[in-house]
Amino acid sequence: MALINHRAREIHFKIVYVGPGLGGKTTNLQCLHDRLPPERRGRLLTLSTDNERTLFFDFLPIDIGQVNGFNTRFHLYTVPGQVYYRLSRRAVLQSVDGVVFVADSHPSREQANFDSLRDLEEHLRVQGFSPEQSARLPRVFQYNKRDLPAALPLDRMRRLLNPRGLPDFEAVATTGHGVNETLRASCKAVLARLSGPVAPRPQPPPPAIPQRA
Ligand SMILES: Nc1nc2c(ncn2[C@@H]2O[C@H](COP(=O)(O)OP(=O)(O)OP(=O)(O)O)[C@@H](O)[C@H]2O)c(=O)[nH]1
Ligand SMILES: [Mg+2]
Fold first, then answer.
1. Is any ligand 1 atom within 6 A of the Cβ of residue 144?
2. Phi, psi (5° rounding) for residue 168?
3. Cα(30) to centroid of ligand 2, in Å?
4. 15: closest CA among 61, 75, 58, 92?
């Protein structure tokens, strides 16, 4: 949830890029880092394995200037997409304000896209999001790797991943196409949520009480 420091007049939001392994999440952050003027962004922090896959997360803070008199900063994170880093994903998704789902347009990744979306829902559920709260979490979809000659048809990806018709964008993260637009839409959705009715913070389920023998 957004962190508001009234004394310093600062507001911080957390946006997490999720999606299947090798879908292009880290490439999105690298591209944003390269394109934003240095005074608007911090250092890109990446925690990667030897072969450049995200091990825990990548992190990029960006400033968007003042909103209602508050200095506003977005903290962008990616999660590791590889299936077995489930617990890392869960940790990074704590207190998320908005999600960007980066789907891979390669036909062989269709099931992985779908599984990754299901994995996200499960993490939100475990963190105490009710189905309604989960549905209200600002989300933006990005269909990445549109440069691939055999890219899945856009309609087909939309039907599978985004049946609610939430904001979505085609992208080629390696060239930067669609990367800024995706982020802008996510920031807009997160800010719009803040100015709407504030929903109670999701509560994780209480820990199990040990039974006496
Ligand atoms: N053709 C093509 N390749 C891309 C595109 N975006 C990313 N890639 C490539 O896909 C590979 C994986 O990209 P990453 O950004 O590391 O993917 P990731 O989602 O962060 O992967 P994990 O960290 O393992 O979850 C890299 O070789 C990228 O250069 C794209 O739009 N088109
Ligand atoms: Mg990565």
1. yes
2. -145, 155
3. 10
4. 75
Residue labelled with tokens 């507001």: 11
Query: Which pTM was predicted?
Result: 0.92
Give domain 3-195's CATH superfamily: P-loop containing nucleotide triphosphate hydrolases (3.40.50.300)
What pLDDT, in 10s, does the model give residues 27-67? 999 999 999 999 999 999 998 888 889 999 999 999 999 99
Instruction: Tell me, in angstroms, the distance from the centre of ligand 2 to residue 6's CA.
Output: 34
Tokens of 62: 């960006």
| Domain range summary for the chain, segments of one domain joined by + | 3-195
How many Å from the N-terminal Cα to the C-terminal Cα in the chain? 40
Local structure of 65: helix, strand or coil: strand
CA angle (149, 54, 37) in 5-degree steps: 80
Ligand 1 contact, 72 CB (< 6 A)? no
Task: Give the atom of ligand 1 at the shortest distance from the alpha carbon of 172.
Answer: 31
Q: Which atom of ligand 1 is nearest to the CA of 19?
A: 19
pLDDT tens track for 69-125: 999 999 999 999 999 999 999 999 999 999 999 999 999 999 999 999 999 999 999
